[in-house]
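Shipment paperwork, digital attachment
Item: protein structure file
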Amino acid sequence: MGDVAFILACMLTIFAPLHWLVWRQMSMLDDPRHLRAVGVVILREEAIDAYGELIGRYADTSIHGTVTFMGMRYEYARVVHPDYAARVGENELYLPPGLLYRACG
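Attachment content:
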């Protein structure tokens, strides 16, 4: 019985901090301030809350003057190469196939 208790104690010692760390990282994904700080890559259009006025088209995709994601508003900045999605920066939002938006305010 002592061996089982020791093994359980070791498992708790290892897995409890890992569980807390994963939980903490996942909870940051619900925080718009965190997302703005690290940048956002949108993979599905359904993730966008609202679109502003249509200002053009690029590669069969509509370009809107603004988009709203998780209550944060972003304005159109420029067209970028699709590889840019891997290095989106602070206050940026990337929409395929290469539309880059910057946070307003």
